[in-house]
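Review form for a predicted model. The reviewer records the input and the model, then writes brief findings.
Reviewer: anonymous (R2)
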Amino acid sequence: MTEERPTMDALDEFADLESMLQYFLEENQEFLSWLGTNVDNVGDGTMTMSIPYDEKLTNIRPSADADERGDLHGGVAATLIDTVGGLVLRTAMDDPFDVRIATINLNVNYLRPATADLVATADVIRVGGSVGVSEITVESTAPDGETKPVAIGQGAYRVFRPE
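Model under review:
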C-alpha cells in the first residue's frame, strides 16, 4: 500500500498548519482521535498539542473521596509526549511532508498526577540526517487551580528521508 503524503500545496485547503495536522489526526489516527488529541500551535521548532480530561482515561485511587477526580493514566501523557515529540521534528525540516518518522527511544518522567486536561509543548533539540531529538513538557491544572508540569520527556526518532 502506498502512503499518500500531503504537499505544501495542500495547505491551501486549510486555514493554517494546525488545521491541516488536526484533520490528518482525525482522519488517519484513530487512537489519537479517540483520545481527543488536539493540535493547538505549530511554530518553528516548537509545537503544542493537548488531550482533554475524560473519565474513561483515568485511574481512581483507592483512598480517593467520592467527589475526587481520577488521575489520568500515565500512558495518556506518554502517548502525547511521543506524538508531539515526533511531529515537532517536521517543523525543522525543509520539506516536512517528504519524510517518515519512527520512534527509536522515548523517556518519560512523571512528576505528579494529572487531574485535568493535558497540554504538551515540544521543542526540537536537533534534527540530523537520520535521527532527530525533541524535549517535551506536559502540563495540567492541579486541583488548587495552578498549572504545573506533570511529566517531562525526551524522544529520539529515526528520520527516513527519500533516496
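Findings: Helices lie at 17-28, 30-35, 74-87.
Further findings: The mean pLDDT is 88.
Recommendation: see findings above.
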